[in-house]
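Structure (tokenized):
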């Protein structure tokens, strides 16, 4: 019986350690579902991207940190929704590549 308790305690300790290892202050669930996102890395990526393309970086910032829809961004920037969608798609490609390198 003592061995059963030791085994249960060891498994419980391992599970707790796994849970702690997977926690991160900077990783949060993406609002639309799917994988979690490292918010700090995304912020750094946006800062680097702003050097290359200020407008696309601003659109991505509004989308991810301002939590605005593409239509809301289009109205705010006085552009069409399709233009914002294309700019955001282009920004996503660059940001994904940057985040893979980190």
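Design, position by position:
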């Amino acid at each position: 019986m003592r061995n059963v308790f030791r085994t249960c305690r060891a498994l419980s300790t391992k599970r707790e350690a796994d849970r702690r290892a997977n926690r991160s202050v900077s990783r949060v669930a993406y609002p639309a579902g799917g994988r979690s996102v490292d918010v700090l890395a995304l912020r750094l990526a946006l800062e680097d991207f702003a050097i290359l393309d200020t407008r696309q970086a601003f659109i991505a910032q509004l989308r991810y940190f301002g939590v605005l829809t593409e239509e809301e961004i289009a109205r705010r920037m006085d552009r069409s929704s399709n233009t914002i969608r294309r700019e955001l798609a282009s920004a996503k490609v660059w940001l994904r590549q940057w985040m893979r390198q980190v």
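Reviewer-requested clarification: The beta strands are 27-29, 36-38. Residues 24-101 form a domain with the Arc Repressor Mutant, subunit A fold (CATH 1.10.10.10).
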